[in-house]
Amino acid sequence: MSFANSRAFDTDRMIAMMEEIAGNIAEQGNAVIVGRGAPYFLCDREDTFRVFTYAPYDEKIRRVLAMGRKRDEAEDLVNNVDKERIAYIKHYFNADWPTRSLYHLMINTVVGDENVIAMILDSMQMLESRTSEEALHRVR
């Protein structure tokens, strides 16, 4: 489907466009697609590795404060972002956020960026090894 000839561009059209784009990127392989429904769009693909990262409330506040926001702004932002994510997923995918069954891995980012990256890469490698081993056994 091409969106070049679409007349109206609204939120529903944007969602359809994002699904098409995510699918095209996934077809090309070796990509990272972040948020806005990607796990829902790609959940039937066996060639994707889906990760959900999260942080405790206090950690989210600390990060926003570190960006120079005032405490009340930080609290409003953190609360509103989560509310908007919940509403978005409920509206467009009729699901709860986060839908845990979509993810191979869920990581609390309070452990630090380097550790998060290492856990993701290690988990991907373990899953890839397991998948390769299972395929080898099916051939025998």
Could you please describe the fold and organization of this structure?
The chain is mostly helical and 140 residues long. It has helices at residues 11-28, 38-41, 57-66, 71-93, 113-139, and strands spanning 51-54, 105-108. Strands 1-2 form a two-stranded parallel sheet. α3 packs across α4 (71-93). The protein is globular, with a radius of gyration of 18 Å. 4% of the residues are buried. The mean pLDDT is 90.
Defining traits:
about 140 residues; two-stranded parallel ribbon; 5 helices; globular
Global structural class: mainly alpha
Order of strands across the main sheet: 1-2
> How would you characterize the largest beta sheet?
2 strands, parallel
Percent helix, as a range, is 55-70%
Query: Globular, elongated, flat, extended or rod-shaped: what is the shape?
Result: globular
User: How many beta strands in the DSSP annotation?
Assistant: 2
Mean pLDDT: 90
| Euclidean distance between termini CA atoms | 41 Å
Series of secondary-structure elements, N-terminal to C-terminal: HHEHHEH
| Count of helical regions | 5
- Estimated radius of gyration: 18 Å
